[in-house]
Amino acid sequence: MNKFTEVYPWQESLWQTLNQNRQKLHHAFLMHGRAGIGKYDFALSFSKALLCPNKDDSGHACNVCPSCRWFNDESHPDFRLISPEQESGNDDETITSKKTKKKTQISVAQIRELSDFLSLSSHQTCGLRIVLISPAETLNQASANALLKMLEEPAPGVIFILIAHQLQRLLPTIISRCQKINMPVPDEAQALAWLNMQGVRNSAQQLAYLEGSPIKVLTEQAQFDQLSEIWKHLALGGKLDSTAAASVVIASSAETGVIAVQKWLYDIVAIKLGQQLRYHVQHTRALQALADRVNLGRLFELQKKINELRKLANHPLNHELQMENLLVEYTKVFQP
User: Fold this and answer.
1) Scanning 58, 304, 311, 333, which has its CA 20 to 30 A from the CA of 154?
2) How far apart are CA 191 and CA 196, in angstroms?
3) Which residues have C-beta within 8 Å of that of residue 187, sequence separation ≥ 6?
4) What is the pLDDT of residues 142-152, one digit of tens each?
């Protein structure tokens, strides 16, 4: 759990609004918006403040009382965090080795286990208990229906907070039971000012690559050195060595590598069509040189293939071979 206890600058206005309406709280909030803008941290701060008996004038948790210490230690008796579980399973290739597999869904068992929590009284005089579900779109059909029953007949003193990156994936009946909060997105100036305060170098380039999500920029710093190596290979165009490049492209993960190639191809198309670059402004000259030589029809076909490969990025395939084949196709789009 993130111990973040404040809110980001672009969330201050929303925080003030919620703090002013604290006496008339809805029993369920749905905080939605694009990934990487601080929804989860905001929800944690909001939960912590609701449970704190010694809030300051701006409504923030005091961070020193027993409630805040419990929250920081991830042991607060009146707070439950529900997210996709992780399970340990045997590696298919070895019996003795174990690895952790990340689940992609919130199970119905996880929601049903809330029944005991909902039936209890609060451990504090504030009388509140909070359930934070993140991301809500990972509820499957069964767990969503189980949650819906709880939202339709809310237990006294219980507040549900749902976080969603993709609102369209939630049941309409769940959405209708919640107070929707469209989480604020920082403008470029706000995002860059905050990133510069965090000491992030080349923040403008990184923010463009990660589509305006400053939290992603901060948390994914390690990937940019690897991306620089990927871009060097892709800039070679038809001279790229697919065998040598494939291992570099997927070094961090197959998904990261596939996305890097997708975004590179997007900007080649953009510059070919006379549009503004979206992701790689710092590589304008290299992309212009590639666009001058590219066969646009072949490039569109390659984009279709890489879109399909992205769907398989988390499958146990031979990703290096898949990427090598894709990069062979990449070199061909620059041939006469």
Assistant:
1) 58
2) 9
3) 10
4) 999 999 999 99
